[in-house]
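User: Reviewer 2 asked us to show a designed sequence for the structure in our supplementary figure. I'm pasting the C-alpha cells here. Could you produce the per-position amino acids so we can include them in the response letter?
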C-alpha cells in the first residue's frame, strides 16, 4: 500500500515536471485561490474566532445601558447604578468599571500625552490580568473623594496608585524595574507606580465605545462612586459571570434589576432605561463581523473559481491520456487504482499550490495589517499561525477533491480499451465538453457576483467622496495640547491658556485662523458628546427624548473650519470670560426643528450642563446668538443629529483639539507649532499632529479597506474566469479542427468561422451572467449596510458589470477564434 502511494507520488511529480507550463499555470491558479483564503482566514481567525487573551474569556461581558426613547444602544453607567449591580445581583462574580481621559505625564523628560484609565480596584483582577512587575490594585488603594473633586482634583488628595502599560514603561522609563514605588506626575497629580502590565495586554472594546483601548496608565477610581449623581453616567462596566451561568441568565437578572430601577428612579423611568449584558468577545467584534464574513465568502468564491479552472485543465489532460489509461487497464489496474493515481496527482498539485499560497498569504497579511482601519479589533494579532497552517492543509485536501475527482471519474468511464483504438484523443467526448462548459458557466456566475459587490463598493466610495462634510479640509492642521488639570484648575484658566496659544499661533507667518473644538468632527464615540435639549416649558419626557451633538469650541473655530455662518455671530473671547451669559450657536437642522420658520436669534432653550465643580448634571437656559451650516459630526455616511455649539468654558473638562488654517503648506508649521506650545508652557505636550485631510481620510478607512479587498478578489475572479473561458474555447477549437477544415473546404469564410467560435464563447458567458445576476440580487444584501448613496440594486452597477464581463469574455473567446480562422483545410483533414 505504502509502496503504491510512493510510486504514484513519484510518477505524479515526474509527469508534471515534464509539462512545466501546464503545471505552472495550475500552481499559480491554486496559489491565488488558496493564498487569498488563508490570508482572510487569518484575519477572521484573529478577530472573530480566537478567544480574547483573558482568563476564562467566555465569562466576561460588558454591561451597557440602552435608552430606547433616544435610540441609544450603548450608553454608560453611573456610580449609583454600578453599586446596585454589585449588591442586587447573584449571577455575577463581580463588576469592574473604568473611565478614560487623555492626560499629561510630566517630570523626568519632556511632557508626554498619555491616555489614563481610572478603574475600580478589582477591574484588572476581574479580567485575570497579572502584572509582570509589581502588583494590581487592592481595595485599600482606593479612597473616598468628594464628587466635586473628581472633576476638579484637589492637590492635597492622597497619591493615586498607578499600573503602567508595558509600552509606557519601555518608552518613558527604559524598562527599568526600579520604577515600582516611583512617584510620577500625571496631570500634575502625584501618583505612585505599583505595577507594570504584560506586553500583549490590551483592553478590547466595541468600535463605537467612548473609551480607547490603548491605555497607558491605570489609576484607581474613588471607592464611594455610589455618592455620585445617578444622572452622571460616565463608567464603562465590565462583568464576569459565575461559572456555569449563561449570558441569557445574566440578562434575565439584569432585566429584573432594570425594572426595579425604572420603578424607583424618575430619571430611569423617563429614559425607559434597559440594561444590556453583552458577551465581551461578541461585543468587540460585532461591527467587524459582517464585513469579515462577506470577505470570507468572497475568497471562497475565488477558490471555487480557481478549482473550476484547474478541473478544466485536468479534464483536458485526462482526455489526452486515453491510451495511457487503456494500457494501465490492460496491465491489470482496476478503475479504483487508476482513480487513486489521478487523485494523488491532484493532491500533489494541491500541496504545491498551498505552499505557494502560504507565501502569498504571508505577504497578503502584511499588506492587510497596513491597510486595515485602526478600529478593526485585534488586527495587531493577525499572523500566519498554526491555525492558518491547519486551515491551509484542509483547503489543500478539499481543493484536491474539488478539482481532481471529476477528471478522475471521467477518465475511467466507459470502455477503457477504446483508448487503444482511438489514439486517446478524447475519452471524455461530448460529456467532457459539457462538464467543462458547466464549470466555466459557474466561474462566470461567481465572478459576476464578486464584481457586482465590488462595483457597489466603488460606487459607494465615489458617493462618499462627493459628500460635503460641512467644512473645508484643505490647509488645516489639527493637534492636541493636553494641559495638566491641577495646573489649570478652572475653566477660565484653561480658556486663557488656549487663547494665549491661539495668539502665538496666529502670529506665525501664513496662518490665517486658529480655533479649537471638543471633540473634532468624525471623532467617533458619542457618549461624552451627546446631550438632551428642549424648548422652555417642555415636559421632562420630551426633553430627554431630544438628543443633539454637543461641541465646545474656542473663538475662531468656525473661521478655521470655514463652516458657513448663516445668521448672527460666532463666538468671541468675551463668551469665555467669567460671568458671561450662557450662549450657543446652533446648526440649521437644529434651528428648523426647534424654532421652525421663526428667527432663532435671541431665543432661549434648555440644554444639559455638566458642572465640573460640583460634578452634577443639570439644565440651563441658553441663548442663541448664531446659526451655522450643518456638519457631519459622526460619519460621512449620515447627516447625523442636530448640533449645539457652546463656548469652551461651558464644557472645558473634555480635551480640546486645536485647528490651524494656513495659506502655506501645512507640513511647514509642525516645528513652529511645537516651539510655540513649549514656549507658552514646557509641561504641555503636542500630540496627534496631523492635517484635517488625513483625519477625514481616516474616517473613510473602513470603507477603503473593504473596497481594496473586495476589488482585489473580484479582479482575481475576473482573471481566472477569463482564463477558464479561454481554455475551454481553445480546447474546443483544437477538438473541432477537422470540422473547421471541412467548413472551410465547403466555402465557409473566416468571418463565418470567427462567428461560430465567438458565438460558442459568448453563449457560455451569457448563461453565466444571467445566473450570476439572479444570485447577486440576494447576496448584495450583505454589503447593503456599507453602502452610501447607492442602492444594493444599483442599475448602473447591474448593467455595467455584465457588460464588462461580456467584453472580457469576448476577448477570451476571440483569441482562439482567431487561431481557428488560420486553420488550413487540407492540413486539418490530413491530421485527422
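Assistant: Here is a per-position design you can include in the supplement:
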Amino acid at each position: 500500500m505504502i509502496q503504491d502511494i510512493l510510486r504514484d507520488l513519484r510518477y505524479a511529480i515526474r509527469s508534471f515536471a515534464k509539462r512545466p507550463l501546464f503545471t505552472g499555470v495550475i500552481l499559480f491558479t491554486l496559489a491565488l485561490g488558496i493564498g487569498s483564503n488563508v490570508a482572510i482566514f487569518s484575519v477572521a481567525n484573529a478577530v472573530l474566532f480566537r478567544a480574547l487573551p483573558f482568563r476564562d474569556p467566555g465569562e466576561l461581558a460588558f454591561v451597557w445601558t440602552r435608552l430606547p426613547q433616544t435610540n441609544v444602544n450603548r450608553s454608560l453607567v453611573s456610580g449609583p447604578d454600578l453599586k446596585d449591580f454589585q449588591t442586587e445581583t447573584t449571577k455575577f462574580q463581580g463588576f469592574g468599571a473604568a473611565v478614560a481621559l487623555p492626560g499629561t505625564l510630566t517630570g523626568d523628560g519632556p511632557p508626554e500625552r498619555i491616555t489614563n484609565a481610572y478603574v475600580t480596584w478589582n477591574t484588572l483582577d476581574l479580567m485575570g490580568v497579572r502584572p509582570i512587575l509589581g502588583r494590581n490594585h487592592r481595595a485599600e488603594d482606593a479612597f473616598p473623594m468628594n464628587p466635586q473633586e473628581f472633576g476638579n482634583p484637589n492637590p492635597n488628595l492622597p497619591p493615586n496608585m498607578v499600573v503602567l502599560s508595558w509600552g509606557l514603561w519601555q518608552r518613558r522609563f527604559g524598562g527599568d524595574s526600579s520604577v515600582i514605588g516611583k512617584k510620577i506626575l500625571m496631570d500634575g497629580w502625584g501618583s505612585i507606580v505599583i505595577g507594570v502590565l504584560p506586553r500583549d495586554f490590551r483592553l478590547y472594546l466595541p468600535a463605537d465605545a467612548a473609551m480607547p483601548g490603548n491605555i497607558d496608565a491605570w489609576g484607581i477610581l474613588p471607592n464611594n462612586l455610589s455618592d455620585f449623581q445617578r444622572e452622571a453616567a460616565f463608567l464603562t462596566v465590565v462583568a464576569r459571570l459565575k461559572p456555569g451561568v449563561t449570558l441569557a441568565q445574566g440578562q434575565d437578572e439584569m432585566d429584573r434589576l432594570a425594572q426595579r430601577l425604572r420603578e424607583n428612579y424618575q430619571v430611569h423611568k423617563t429614559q425607559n432605561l434597559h440594561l444590556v449584558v453583552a458577551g465581551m468577545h461578541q461585543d468587540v467584534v460585532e461591527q467587524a463581523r459582517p464585513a469579515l464574513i462577506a470577505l470570507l465568502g468572497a475568497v471562497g468564491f475565488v477558490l471555487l473559481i480557481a478549482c473550476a479552472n484547474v478541473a478544466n485543465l485536468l479534464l483536458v489532460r485526462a482526455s489526452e491520456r486515453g491510451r495511457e489509461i487503456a494500457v494501465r487497464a490492460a496491465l491489470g489496474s482496476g478503475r479504483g487504482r487508476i482513480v487513486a493515481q489521478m487523485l494523488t496527482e491532484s493532491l500533489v498539485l494541491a500541496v504545491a499550490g498551498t505552499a505557494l499560497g502560504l507565501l502569498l498569504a504571508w505577504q497578503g497579511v502584511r499588506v492587510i495589517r497596513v491597510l486595515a482601519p485602526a478600529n478593526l479589533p485585534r488586527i495587531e494579532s493577525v499572523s500566519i499561525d498554526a491555525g492558518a497552517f491547519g486551515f491551509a492543509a484542509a483547503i489543500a485536501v478539499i481543493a484536491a477533491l474539488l478539482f481532481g475527482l471529476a477528471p478522475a471519474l471521467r477518465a475511467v468511464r466507459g470502455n477503457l480499451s477504446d483508448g487503444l483504438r482511438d489514439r486517446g484523443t478524447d475519452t471524455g467526448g461530448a460529456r467532457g465538453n459539457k462538464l467543462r462548459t458547466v464549470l466555466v458557466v459557474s466561474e462566470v456566475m461567481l465572478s459576476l457576483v464578486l464584481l457586482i459587490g465590488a462595483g457597489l463598493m466603488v460606487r459607494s466610495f465615489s458617493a462618499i467622496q462627493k459628500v460635503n462634510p460641512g467644512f473645508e479640509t484643505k490647509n488645516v492642521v489639527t493637534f492636541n495640547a493636553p494641559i495638566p488639570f491641577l495646573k489649570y484648575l478652572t475653566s477660565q484658566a484653561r480658556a486663557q491658556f488656549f487663547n494665549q496659544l491661539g495668539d502665538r499661533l496666529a502670529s506665525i507667518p501664513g496662518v490665517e485662523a486658529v480655533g479649537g473644538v471638543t471633540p473634532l468632527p468624525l471623532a467617533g464615540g458619542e457618549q461624552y458628546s451627546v446631550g438632551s435639549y428642549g424648548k422652555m416649558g417642555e415636559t421632562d419626557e420630551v426633553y430627554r427624548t431630544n438628543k443633539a451633538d454637543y461641541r465646545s469650541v474656542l473663538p475662531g473655530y468656525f473661521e478655521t473650519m470655514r463652516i458657513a455662518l448663516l445668521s448672527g455671530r460666532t463666538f468671541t473671547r468675551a463668551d469665555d470670560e467669567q460671568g458671561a451669559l450662557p450662549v450657543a450657536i446652533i446648526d440649521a437642522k437644529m434651528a428648523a426643528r426647534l424654532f421652525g420658520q421663526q428667527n432663532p436669534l435671541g431665543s432661549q432653550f434648555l440644554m444639559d450642563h455638566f458642572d465640573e465643580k460640583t460634578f452634577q448634571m443639570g439644565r440651563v437656559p441658553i441663548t442663541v446668538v448664531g446659526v451655522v451650516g450643518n456638519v457631519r459630526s459622526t460619519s460621512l455616511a449620515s447627516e447625523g443629529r442636530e448640533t449645539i455649539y457652546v463656548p469652551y468654558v461651558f464644557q472645558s473638562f473634555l480635551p480640546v483639539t486645536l485647528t490651524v488654517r494656513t495659506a502655506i503648506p501645512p507640513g511647514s508649521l509642525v516645528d513652529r507649532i511645537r516651539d510655540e506650545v513649549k514656549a507658552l508652557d514646557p509641561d504641555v505636550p503636542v500630540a496627534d499632529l496631523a492635517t484635517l485631510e488625513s483625519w477625514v481620510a481616516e474616517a473613510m478607512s473602513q470603507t477603503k479597506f473593504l473596497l481594496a479587498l473586495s476589488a482585489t478578489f473580484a479582479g482575481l475572479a475576473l482573471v481566472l474566469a477569463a482564463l477558464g473561458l479561454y481554455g475551454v474555447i481553445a480546447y474546443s477549437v483544437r477538438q473541432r479542427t477537422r470540422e473547421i477544415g471541412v467548413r472551410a473546404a465547403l466555402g465557409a469564410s473566416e468571418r463565418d468561422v470567427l462567428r461560430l467560435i465567438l458565438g460558442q464563447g459568448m453563449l457560455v458567458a451569457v448563461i453565466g451572467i444571467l445566473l450570476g445576476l439572479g444570485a447577486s440580487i440576494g447576496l448584495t444584501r450583505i454589503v447593503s449596510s456599507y453602502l452610501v448613496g447607492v442602492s444594493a440594486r444599483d442599475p448602473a452597477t447591474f448593467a455595467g458589470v455584465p457588460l464588462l464581463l461580456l467584453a472580457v469574455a469576448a476577448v477570451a473567446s476571440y483569441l482562439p477564434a482567431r487561431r481557428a480562422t488560420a486553420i488550413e483545410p487540407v492540413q486539418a483533414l490530413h491530421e485527422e
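For the response letter, you might also mention the following. Confidence is low (pLDDT under 50) at residues 423-431. The longest strand covers residues 92-106.
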